[in-house]
Amino acid sequence: MHLELNLATHPFGQRRLFWVSTGAAALMLFGVAALLVAFYVRNHELPPEFVQREVRLRGELRALQAEEAELKRKLGLPENEQVLDRSLFLNQLLHRKGISWTRTFADLEEIFPPRVRVEQLRPQVTPDNRVFLDMTVGAETRQDFDELIFALEESDIFDEPQLRGETPPTEQDPVFKYLLSVRYDQQFRNDESGD
Questions:
Q1: Which strands sit side by side in the sheet containing 158-167, from one edge to the other?
Q2: 104 and 61 co-located in one domain
Q3: For the segment 18-31, what is each residue's pLDDT rounded down to a tens digit?
Q4: Domain count, the chain
Q5: Domain that holds residue 86
Q6: What tens digit of pLDDT does each residue of 79-122 get?
Q7: Is residue 146 in some structural domain?
Q8: Is residue 69 domain-shared with residue 142, that is, in the same domain?
Q9: Contact assessment for residue 138 and residue 166, using Cβ atoms and an 8 Å cutoff
């Protein structure tokens, strides 16, 4: 048998433990808050070397922006635009020279059906250096042209044939005319003699 003896007029019971633990937790929280405030106050301002570096980098950025604006102004002058256009044209011409006409016609000759002929041919080089051939072809019948499209689709060096337009036969020119665009991957061979 266990007897509890409490002679207090108003006994605390378990409240004393609650208040003691609550007070201890509040003191700990207050201590953590004080540490955070002290850390913030100490690190609120950047070190002087960081501030100086930021000022220097901002000055360099302003100088580069002014130089960029000056270069844009110079490039916008009419005489400079003409030089840029001419340079672009010459670069495209040099790149186009790298396409062998001899090899192109030989590749087309292997693909074309006997009753289909090339009437006009113009290569186009895209900025990513892909070559497209825009051509006008003449065919005696629609079936001959369909045979050409099938041969182009089956080819390893021609791809993505696209019909851009067609003209029916006339009394003066009794063939079907087709405007066609096809991607061309020229395969250079060791025995090629060049243009």
A1: 116-125, 131-139, 176-184, 158-167
A2: no
A3: 778 888 999 999 99
A4: 2
A5: 49-97
A6: 777 777 877 776 676 566 567 778 888 888 888 888 888 888 88
A7: yes
A8: no
A9: no
